[in-house]
Amino acid sequence: MLNVSNVLNSGLIAELEVGQHFYWHLGNFKIHGQVFMASWIVIAALLIASILATRNVQRVPSGMQNFMEYALEFLRDLTRTQIGEKEYRAWVPFVGTLFLFIFVSNWGGALIPWKLVELPSGELAAPTNDINTTVALALLTSVAYFYAGLSRKGLGYFADYAQPTPIMVPFKIIEDFTKPLSLSFRLFGNILADELVVAVLVFLVPLIVPIPLMILGLFTSAIQALIFATLAASYIGEAMEDHHGGEHE
Amino acid sequence: MLHSVLPNLLAAEGGGLFDLDATLPLMAVQFLVLALLLNATLYKPLGAALDERADYIRNTQAEAKETLATVENLTREYEVALADARRAAQTTIADAQADAQSIAAAAIAEAQQQARAERERAQLEIDRQKQTAMAALDAQVDGLSRQIVKKLLGYELG
Q1: Residue B38: its chain A contacts at CB < 8 A?
Q2: Does A72 touch chain B (CB under 8 A)?
Q3: Model pTM score
Q4: Does B4 sit within 8 Å of A59, measured CB to CB?
């Protein structure tokens, strides 16, 4: 076993560096440099695509504008089905950015040959396979749905915790903790597991055999982005929902 | 292989899988900035384009519907007018035919009248000439009879 890990560490393609980070120091704080480097590439890709799409907006779309309009309509539909026709517009940027960032991160992690870039420690990968990223996104989602509920109902939002029966109160409070937890760990676990499985298979059988799993990984990545965005939108929609049969209308 | 990795997973110092640090808040801020930038470069302009197009399509469709309604009304009016015109034309044709028929009938009747009169006149003439001829024939028959009798009897009767 030791031999194997020595061979591995001596620079095979399939080298696994889980849990090692390329630290940057910002004052007293440590941050994961590889995550930020990858996320900047993702952000740059998104911004370039957006600017290309809206540089010259036409009534009859073509090329990039057409593609991004397709994406935007998809995001609008996703948000509308979860939040409802009346309120969804304000939430499209948040939910849409969640989807786009996670989706491009996941696919970028799977498709860009990061191994070509050598880091002193750790390795470049999808930003979403770092727990910090997913927890950040999940906490933002929590903040977003609290904001949505409070801004719509004021403190009456918390009164809704006892809505069907007061027995629900502890469960609803627990839910406020489990929602970000499950959101962040689902995404983190799926992406990391996918990268690990592919890396292990590439280590065992370098050719052809990992390809189906890589394709499956792309599928999972897309599904995870969709799940995260849909759940975030659904939490926000749930927080804004009227529990009193519309008497507040 | 994973054995060499496992210690790292739990190591608090050298990183580890669950190494939460300043990356988290910075990533959150970065995400919000990305959302704002995308809002400015993607959601707003493209959303406006989508809405504008939807409005345009709705308006154009409404206009088209209006135009179609107008066209249908006009068609109906024209059809009514056309039916009227056709009916008028038919009446005119019928009138003209009736006129023509009466004129033709009159002309035929007159011609027949004339022909009959002509024939009657001719008949009268024939009768008259026949009588004259008969009278002349009678006279000749008389003369000849006398001559025959005279020849046979050698004398004249009466």
Answers
A1: 46-47, 50, 93, 96-97, 100
A2: yes
A3: 0.74
A4: no
pLDDT digits (tens, 9 = 90+) for A154-195: 888 888 888 778 888 888 899 999 999 999 999 999 998 888
What residues form DSSP beta bridges with A26? A29
Residues of B with CB under 8 A from a CB of A: 1-5, 8-9, 11, 14-28, 30-32, 34-39, 41-43, 45-50, 52-53, 56
Per the CB < 8 Å rule, is B17 touching A200?
no
Range list of H helices, chain A: 2-9, 33-54, 63-83, 92-111, 131-153, 156-159, 168-204, 210-240
**Could you give the ipTM of this predicted complex?**
0.83
Residues A194 and A79 sit within 8 Å (Cβ to Cβ): no
Q: Do A4 and B27 touch (CB under 8 A)?
A: no
Do A95 and A236 form a contact (C-beta atoms < 8 A)?
Answer: yes
Q: Is the pLDDT of residue B5 over 60?
A: no
Residue A232 to residue A225: CA distance in whole angstroms: 11
**A124 φ, ψ (degrees, to nearest 5):** -75, 140
For residue A145, is pLDDT > 50? Answer: yes
